UniProtKB/TrEMBL annotation:
Keyword Signal attributed: yes
Source species of the chain: Temnothorax curvispinosus
Keywords carried by this UniProt record: Membrane, Signal, Transmembrane, Transmembrane helix
Recorded coiled-coil stretches: none
Superkingdom of origin organism: Eukaryota
Protein name listed in UniProt: Protein rolling stone-like isoform X3
A Gene Ontology term for the protein's cellular component: membrane
Segments traversing the membrane: 69-91, 111-129, 150-172, 184-205, 212-232, 252-277
Signal peptide (UniProt feature, chain positions): 1-26
Repeat as UniProt keyword: no
Amino acid sequence: MVLSFTGLPSSKRLLLLFLQCSLCRRAMVNKLWCLEIGRRWRQAARQEPPQARVLSEPKCQSYVAIWYLYYRWTIFLAWTAFVVCSIFEIGSYEPLSQYEKWPIYLTNWDMTLGITQALIGGILVSKRWRLQKIPGFNPCDLKLESTDRLYWFLYVVTTNMAIGVTISYWLAVYNPEIHKVDPLNIMMHVCNSVLMLIDLFVTNIPFRLRNFWWCLSIVVFYIIFSVIYYVAGGLDKHDNHYIYKVLDWKKPVRTLLVCIGGFTFVTVLHCVVCMLANIRDRIYRKTAENVSKPAQLNMTDDKPLPEKQIEVV
């Protein structure tokens, strides 16, 4: 672009020149940002899958100790208790006894995913516990099989779903005139997310930003199910022609906006959980460095360490 002026440039020409330079600079910056985002996305797409060992060992250890074996099956028992109590409404102040409608609620989808991933996790850890007793066993030789991939998928989805169900229920679904804050409600809409957050900081399961579509796919399936259920004339436990009031397809425009907001919320939530997993990794890494520093100082010290006196009894 060549600019030519006859005589002194006027203020309008100077303003036009300034705007053109600003727009060109902004376009170049946007192009660079797009190239950088594309490069990082391609780099993430080429990222290798995790080692199979990280799916069956705690974050604090490189092997399966007996406490972790018991811990994983305790998690499974906790999810089993959640499912049994939710089906038979144990802990509800006003049970409705409509067991056939249990599968229509997103909370119970989360319960199903939770107990499934907990069962697979217990099986994988038990298998690892038996294998590491074999002489010469190397956990790095474990292969990432379909069961491991399924467990990874279910664990990531369950973590996001549990937290998402808790937040969305108390912000968009809970109605004090209908819902009671009873032990069952607390168990299904608070304890589930607390359990997964605790488990997140115990396990070594990786969370990656590019896997945001995992949980998003479950939400899409549920939206499709809610539409089919509405068209078929399905009712909720209170005989309303919807599952949740925020998903009332009698008002399609509003409900579509709610769905779009839900998709955005799930994506942002996955990013937050990935950040928590990153914080977990940094905490353990920092702790490991602090523990290893005294040992290194003792090994590099010129003065010999004092020998520990042995008491003869």
